Structures are given as structure tokens and as C-alpha cells.
Amino acid sequence: MTGKMDSNAAVHPQHPKRLVFAPGDIKGPEVDGDEPASSAVRMAASHLAEDITRSDTSTPTSAMQQELLSHPARAHQFTINPPLHVSHLHPTNPLHQFHKWFMDPRLPRSSAPETCTLATASLPSGRVSARMLYFKELDERGWVIYSNWGSKEGKGEQIFGSKYRASADGTMPGDMHDSAALNQGNRWAALTFFWSLVERQVRIEGIIEPLSREESEMYWRTRERHSQIGAWTSWQSKVLWSVNSEESLNNPDLEDGRSDLENRAKEIESRFAGVKDIPLPPFWGGIRVVPESVEFWQGRPGRLHDRFRYVREEAGHSAKTSTWRIERLSP
Ligand SMILES: Cc1cc2nc3c(=O)[nH]c(=O)nc-3n(C[C@H](O)[C@H](O)[C@H](O)COP(=O)(O)O)c2cc1C
Which PROSITE patterns match (predicted)? Predict the structure, then answer.
């Protein structure tokens, strides 16, 4: 089958079916006097959309391509920031610079500025995965996030390695707070923040270290009881249920694994019914991303953004005692 597709592709080059095509599909602000141009692009894009509903591929005709290419795509522009100059940055410490941007009064707490993406990679494949998290603490060493590291299906195995295991039923008695647990994994990680309201991005790359059990305990105690039950309940990222997509899924009473999760939550609730302080699970806790580099990006018109990166030159015990080189990067 692959051979057939390849030979077809060579004769009739076709694009895979597009479900979103930026010109026309991603709405942008209308520019004054731009109406005829943007409607031509919209028309070409909608012809293309009609075309792809009829087939598995979207191959624009040359006329459509002409129409689309003769108008600039409506890409988002970054307009609100004045120039960012190195003199605006903290001279010696990227963590302090992060703190300054994080506390910007233009970033309301309701916009959840603590939301970030954590990217990690498997060894030896190099396969990368990323997920949103809430960052919870910033200290002199780095950024702290909390999660469940127990299952081999999730990021736990990437970071802690395939030999690390810890389970809610105690049959796999690891503890993520034991830093030796990290020896087999890939400790490199990246955290990215994007604050659209202020048109800023911060990118952190560094090495993961687990918090001490005492540090994780302190945060665990602040969590609401039902979140603590949830943490014990979930063997995070383990497959609860699956189906072959050819089976019929129309039946709204189809049991799809949710009830197993809820039954398990009930079991955990009764297990801790008389317990005032639910203990910290051995597979749940905080890790700190200790930065090797931190980039501060601020959007500017015409894609000529300002980018400054701190790169650790000499490792001290904390970011405060390390020395950092500051570089301006091409946008
Ligand atoms: C906005 C947002 C915040 C989240 N915060 C956390 C968090 O702080 N900790 C966490 O373990 N999962 C959090 N999640 C869920 C993760 O994205 C992810 O599903 C989970 O950590 C499992 O990831 P894994 O399969 O890579 O282990 C959050 C999801 C969203 C959308």
C-alpha cells in the first residue's frame, strides 16, 4: 500500500487534507481598506474547504494558489510592547527577572499566569511529550511543579527511568522523593510560559530534581481533601479503557471506563474515612526545574521580536550564586 501511495504521489502531488488553512480560516482583525483583498483570500480558502470535503486531499488549483499567494496571510501581530532593552532586565539573575514579569500588574490572576507547558523526552528514543501544568513555586534554585510520577505511561518513566515504579497499592514501593530514583531517566526538561495579554513568552531549559519529602508534604497539606483523594485514586496516564474505532460508539450507555475511576475514588475515600491527615502518596510530589538557560521573549511588530537569553556559565548552589551570560537572540 505504501508503494502505491508513493507512486501516486510522485505523479499527482497532493497535499494531505487540510482542516484549517490559515488564510481565511484563522480570523484576524480587518485592516482598513483591506476588505477586497481579504474577501478574495476568504473566497479562495472557502473553495479549498469545499474541495477538501469532497476528497481526502486538498490540492489547490493554480488559480486558487495564485489568489491565496497574492495576499498576505492574516497573522497575529504583536503591538503593545515598547522596545525591550538589556537595561530593563535583571543584571544577574533570571529567576528575579521571571518574578518581575510574573508579577506584572497587567497579568490578572484570573488569566492563570502560572499555566505553563512542561516538555520531557524518552530515552533512548528521543520521543518528546509536552503537557500543561500549573507552576506552584519559584525559589532560588528554580521552578517547582507538582504531579503524579507513578505510571510508566506518563512523564514519570521519562524522568525517573523505566526501573522506577511506585503504586497506590504499595505493590511497587518506590518513592519519587528519593533522588537516586532519577538516575535511570532523562533529567532534561523544558518549561514554557506564554502570557498573551502582555505578549510575552518565557522559555526555561534545565535539569529536574525532586523536592525533598518534607517540601512536597508542605504543599500536599495545603491541598483540599478531595484533591488528595483524587491523587491517590489516579494512576495517572494509565489506560483505563480502550476500543477499536471500528466498533460502534453510538450507545450513550456504553461503559467507557469512567465508572472504574469513580469506584476507585470511593474505595480510597473509605480507606481514608477515619484519617484526618491523608498521607502524601509516594508517587506524588514536586519536582524543580533548575535552569541552564532562561529566555525572555517580547513580541514586536513585523516579527522583529526582542529576545534575551540568560545562559548559566558557572554553576553555584543556587541561581543567585551562579554566573549568567546574557545574549540577545535574533527573532
Ligand atoms: C491548565 C492545566 C493545568 C494542569 N495542571 C496540572 C498540574 O499542575 N499537575 C499535573 O499533574 N497535571 C496537570 N494538568 C494535567 C496535565 O496536562 C497532564 O494531563 C497530566 O499531568 C498527565 O501527563 P502525562 O501523561 O504526561 O504524565 C493540567 C492540565 C491543564 C490543562
Answer: PYRIDOX_OXIDASE (PS01064)
